[in-house]
Amino acid sequence: MAAGTYAYPGGSNTYVKNPEATGYLKVAFSRNPDSFPLAEYAQYRSVSKDQGYYLQIKTEQAARLVGKSLKDYVWPDGADRPRRNNGTSPFRFVDYRTERYDFDFQLGYKAERQADWNIKDTESNVHAQQAMTARTVSIANLLSTTGNWDASHVKDVATIAGNLGSWEISTTARGDIKRSINYGVQLIHQHTLGVVKKKKDLRLVMNPVTAQRVGESQEIIDYLKGSPDAKVQLGIESGSLETYDDFGMPKYLYGVKVIIEDTVVVTSVREATTTVYDYAMATGDIFLLSRPGGLEANAASGPSFATAMVFLYEEMTVETKDDPDNRRVEGHVVDDFAGALTAPVSGFYFTGTTE
């Protein structure tokens, strides 16, 4: 094997990168929905620069016929071609800027060499989970900020015409849950000019507490009992509960796939008297999100109608640094990303779904 060039130690040239660990963490945590649900409702896009712009174009012009009349577009023979000078679509460039995060650990030589398990890999996995938890919290905060949404795409469910209250106390007779979902789906269909029209491209996202409360509503109970697919929903025919979620919601609700955002966050400091647990997504918030296509958006494939996107400049890099002077090893998991609502009209934010 050819020898490398000599260099004086400094900067980051003393880091020994472990590509196998990096690849493993990328698959096991970042892109595996069995580990973290984020990949099920947000689309990833790799970027070559840590800051830049993405293009947003208002779509109304493509369907505009004022008063459903064609008179403005008539071109009589022999007459000048119509010139309205208003046939273009407004656009804007929106900037993104990724932020680099480092989740570190430190092991003494004695601790590493005398451990009865591969302690370095274990710590790498732990800190990769911490990094993915941070990424999930970032996207959840982005989704729950009403200012990021088109005003008509955020609504307390009790204020939707025909609804009587929250989803938690809805009944089959009231139909508040079904009416809300249909309302959101129809608005998304209209405001994307029919581009987002398939329920298979939509995800209904909520945390476990919300799922349990809504799942105990009489409307959901009757939905499962009365559906011709009830046995399948409950997993009876398949002999398993794969189609029935652990938190009391069906895998599909009125044709929309349900995603339970069950990422747990510990918000208390280490060694606190009481450990405080929470979920990344707030209780009572439910999001209807467009999530078409594959996991990663192709930059050459044209516009993306994914509601939420994660721009990735560096994804789950694992680094270890040997420090012989202090007889220790440093470990780092690095994630460089930014979240964005790239197509907010392709989603809907339901508030007040629980009591």
Description of the molecule:
Strand 13 (308-323) and strand 14 (328-341) form a beta hairpin. The chain is flat. The protein is built from eight helices and 15 strands. The chain has a single domain (15-59, 86-351), classed as phage-related protein like fold (Alpha-Beta Complex). It has 355 residues and is of the alpha+beta class. It starts with 14 loop residues before the first strand and ends with a strand. The strands form four sheets. It has a six-stranded mixed sheet. Strands 1, 2, 5, 13 and 14 form a five-stranded mixed sheet that branches. A two-stranded antiparallel ribbon has the order 3-4.
Q: In summary, what is this structure?
A:
With 355 residues, the protein is of the alpha+beta class. It has eight helices and 15 strands.
Tags for this entry?
single chain, 355 residues, alpha+beta, phage-related protein like fold, six-stranded mixed β-sheet, five-stranded mixed β-sheet, 24% helix
As a percent range, the share of strand residues is 25-35%
Which CATH architecture? Alpha-Beta Complex
Question: How far is it from the N-terminal to the C-terminal residue, by CA?
Answer: 67 Å
Unreliable stretches: 233-243
Radius of gyration: 25 Å
Q: What is the 3D shape?
A: flat
Number of E strands? 15
Write the layout of secondary structure elements.
Elements: E1 15-17, H1 19-30, H2 38-41, E2 43-46, E3 51-57, E4 91-97, E5 99-108, H3 109-114, H4 119-143, E6 154-156, H5 176-191, E7 202-206, H6 208-215, H7 218-226, H8 230-234, E8 252-253, E9 256-260, E10 264-266, E11 277-279, E12 286-290, E13 308-323, E14 328-341, E15 348-351
Parallel strand pairs: 2-13, 6-15, 7-9
Antiparallel strand pairs: 1-13, 3-4, 5-14, 7-12, 8-9, 10-11, 12-15, 13-14
